[in-house]
Automatic annotation (TrEMBL):
Residues 7-169 form the SGNH hydrolase-type esterase domain. It comes from the Bacteria. The lineage of its organism: Bacteria, environmental samples. Pfam families: Lipase_GDSL_2. Signal peptide: none annotated. InterPro entries: Ester_Hydrolysis_Enzymes, SGNH_hydro, SGNH_hydro_sf. GO terms for molecular function: phosphatidylcholine lysophospholipase activity. This is Putative G-D-S-L family lipolytic protein. Gene3D superfamilies: SGNH hydrolase. It comes from uncultured bacterium RM57.
Length: 186
């Protein structure tokens, strides 16, 4: 499971709903981008047949995508294909999309304006996909931006991309609030 917001979420929901015997799997891989997800999607997603699938992908596509020749349009098309394929194979699956985020910390401080301008394009793509497929969108960027009113950005993420323990808790809370309001009856 790792030691991140997904782990905290699994711990919280697993304890609160122990009678359901829930199983949580984390198939996230550091550095992943949409084309890398696509390569392992059958084994890591479709074959498992989850009831709920939460996807957060886009910051690596932003920071490293152009170096690999991946445009925002290719990111959106690839992500769209994954969603369409998944819903065709698992029509009752509940999918939650996460908004990729970036804060001006560490090496991203000096390049933040340019990197964030590129990230906003992918954030807009995720918003379009959430709208297209009627899926909840967890607005992590908004949550971190609001949290930075309480404490500096480096309190929430140690490098602009990877959250601290407080940042992971914030992500878990934001995920729960979003999903609970989107599907209030579970």
């Amino acid at each position: 499971m790792g030691q991140d917001y997904a782990y905290i979420l699994a711990a919280k929901l697993g304890a609160e709903h122990a009678e359901l015997g829930l199983t949580f799997l984390n198939r996230g891989i550091s550095g992943d981008r949409v084309p890398l997800l696509a390569a392992r999607w059958q084994a890591d997603t479709l074959a498992i047949k989850p009831n709920v699938l939460s996807i957060l992908v886009g910051i690596n596509d932003t920071l490293f995508g152009d170096l690999k020749g991946e445009t925002t349009e290719q990111y959106e098309q690839g992500f769209d294909q994954l969603l369409a394929q998944t819903l065709a194979a698992l029509p009752n699956l509940k999918i939650v999309l996460g908004q990729p985020f970036l804060l001006p910390v560490g090496k991203h401080r000096a390049t933040y304006a340019a990197e964030f301008a590129e990230l906003k394009k992918r954030q807009a793509a995720v918003q379009r996909l959430a709208t297209k497929y009627h899926l909840p969108l967890v607005r992590y960027q908004d949550a971190f931006d609001a949290a930075c009113q309480k404490a500096p950005a480096d309190y929430w993420t140690w490098d602009g991309v990877h959250p601290t323990y407080a940042g992971h808790w914030l992500m878990m809370q934001t995920w729960l609030e979003t999903v609970s309001s989107f599907w209030p009856k579970g």
